Amino acid sequence: MNKSIVSFFFLIGLIYHTPTSLAGNFASEIATANDLYAKSKFQQAADSYESLIQRGVNNGYLYYNLGNTYIRLGKIGPAILNYIHAKKLIPRNENLRANLNFAIQQTQDKIPPPAHNALSTFFFWVNDLNINENINLAIVVNLIFWVILTAWFYFRSEFLRLARNSFLALLLLAFVSIGVKLHLESNLKIGVVLAKKVDVKSGFDLSNITLFQLHEGALVTITDERPGWLEVGLNTKQKGWVRKNIIGT
Amino acid sequence: MIFLKKKSILPVFVFWYALTINAFGQNIQVLATVDRNQITLEDSIQLSITIKGSQNTPPPELPSLPNFRITSRGTSSSTQIVNMERSISITHNYRLTPMNIGQFKIGPARIRVNKNVYLTKPINIFVKKSTAPIQTGNRPVFLESTASKKEAYIGEQLIYSFKLFYRVEAKNFDLNMPFGASHFQKEELGKAKSYQSVVNGIQYHVQEVSVALFPIKPGKAEIPSATLELDIYHRPQNRPNGGPFSQFFNDPFFSQGTRAEHKILRTKPISIKVLPLPEKGKPKGFKNIIGNFNIIANLGKDDLEVGDTTTLTITVSGNGNLRGVSFPEPDLKKLFKIYPDQPEFNQAVIGNQITGKKVFKFALVPLKPGAVKLPAFTLFYFDPIIKDYRKAQTHPIEVNVRPSSSQETLNLVQSNSLDNIIAKPKIETLAEDILPLHTTLDDFNNINTKINTSTILEFTFPTIFFLICAFIIQQKKRLTTDTAFYRSQKAYKTASQKLESLMHSKNIDSKGFASELSEILREYIGDKLNMKGKAITAVEVEYKLKKLDYQTNQVNITRNLLEKCDTLQYAPESFENYQELLNETQALIKSLEKNS
Fold first, then answer.
1. Is B434 near chain A, with CB under 8 Å?
2. Is the CB of B181 less than 8 angstroms away from the CB of A51?
3. B168-204 burial by CB neighbour count: b if 16+ within 10 A, else e?
4. What ipTM was assigned to the predicted interfaces of this complex?
């Protein structure tokens, strides 16, 4: 009996233990890159951070540090692009928010990040959680709901009935939140202008007329794609086509 | 018809299956190659990592290459079918741009396929200095960067120019022009200029980019080297020239003999000595304004009534960075109610010099009649040309305030609220900067999106846990409320215990044994069928079991066994093999239990 209980909890432990690849492998390289930054060797620091990203490391603080390094190098476009990448992973980081605002202020167009739409305004908490945090929240609420349901099945008290109903509502909300987050991440694609100046054309060909111009670091919403071209918009009225290779996504 | 369709699909499926099996069965091979291993600082290397035998692998994990800048150049995949043998491969391409000279080793790249790790072989690379002469003459393309001064005061404007000279076709420019953000503030000086220039008798196209830099701290400052990556096109010299379509066919797209070369050019870093502003003669109220400026004050109306409004405009203009210029409200609180406006700031570039204009506006509403002299506005600045502090000042303005012609008593008084009495100190922002790097190494975990089998398990496990618990709870509850269920659940256990007890009982005669055995069997059946077991007859048992869809074989055995027990009770000498009867009863109860 004791053995089976131990096995049961071991199984739970296995299921709920999320293996994370620790910084161990990259710690020394990140420390070296941070030192290079501290010694004002910004290009070398940027190369080290970029190298880690090229090798598949995905971390919000890494993108944040790279964004800072590009700011020091005077490359506002790549800086904003990396801050936007970081925002997906560490959305509540205050330093990131401040530095992104600072970087946007350095651009010529000073375009703020796209405003929240009705969906993201209604599910406001989704913007402050990354996708993994949304999933973890749903897992925790799911676990609590089923434990309360089990307890209610045995004791049938009014308190447990209320708790059961509340957590059922929370669970449904958590599932919908994951759906909303996935929807927003796949549909709301933000791009950053990386070239000094970009002509936004009326069609996906250089012979089309230039509707307006954007400058390095301008934030745009990508609404469509054709081979070699992206349709970008600032709002519902100002839309046009730009070459794909000068927009960072 | 369906059969025919199936028949036609079958060979296709077999073919596909054969190919797939071949593909999956292939050994994975990984290979790292470079297009050359001896380069100069101006060149780049194409590193290709080819994975043969699979196309669904994650990107290779490149080794640490601090001496190179890595740029992904995309992937290419290939599928070949030769003699029914399918071979697939994917190649990941990278451009490695050398940062230093020396001999370097590109360590093994890791490729993870189906939980196996494959390593490529290391490659040695030798990076040497540019082989081209240092002199600019005769080179197809070169860079030049200059600073207008090698020595400047804090806040003084410097012009940093970057020039690209080229006399061959060049495209795909990627300019990285750092300016030393920790030592300077930068202001753009407009668009890049394009012109022709002759160097050592050779005509070059020149692209020039200039920025204004303002030193922010004293000491030795360095403008880092700028880097330009570009593709230059070398054409064959003997190509016929002329003809109406020559320009069209000279495009690199049509030029078969045109050779493109990727180059990385660097300028030398520039050292600047930044001097602190002299302490001697520094006026009180000096706010680090460097340049040469004028200041003018204008008043909308100089003759007005109490309660009228007029605008006091202070305009500061000149050469230099005017962003930091500010003025406090004039000290006229007893005489005027003052409404300061947001300053207007305009900046223009004339030649290579930043010229600016900042306009401050104050709306004034007189509170008392009389002749008033508005105080002069003073701006202290440091003039780097004469290397001394200077003062720009407006002329005092006289205003005549007449009593109000309106009969209505004006109630214009200065607000005396608590906020004004305890005025919050205004803290002037001198500069803005980014917040520092994140240095907590434990936070640098590699984060992957968490939608996998483990996530599904984490979601489904509590449901399974609930179902198991609910079943157990339901069973327990039913045992306490449903007598028939309780009897049915306990029947087998009770019968087994009694049979065990009977097996070990001694000094029992055949009559007693048969009676006991018969009772155990009847009680078991009675518990199972929720009846009084002791009074039940063999015929009733047969009827009930048949009704409940027990197997005919089980029903017959039960009836025979009960009859045998009855016979044994009334004719005890006819049977002596107790053990056989006991085993038969045990087997029957087990069989009935399985069927229940």
1. yes
2. no
3. ebbeeeebbbbbbbebbebbebeeeeeeeeebeeeeb
4. 0.79
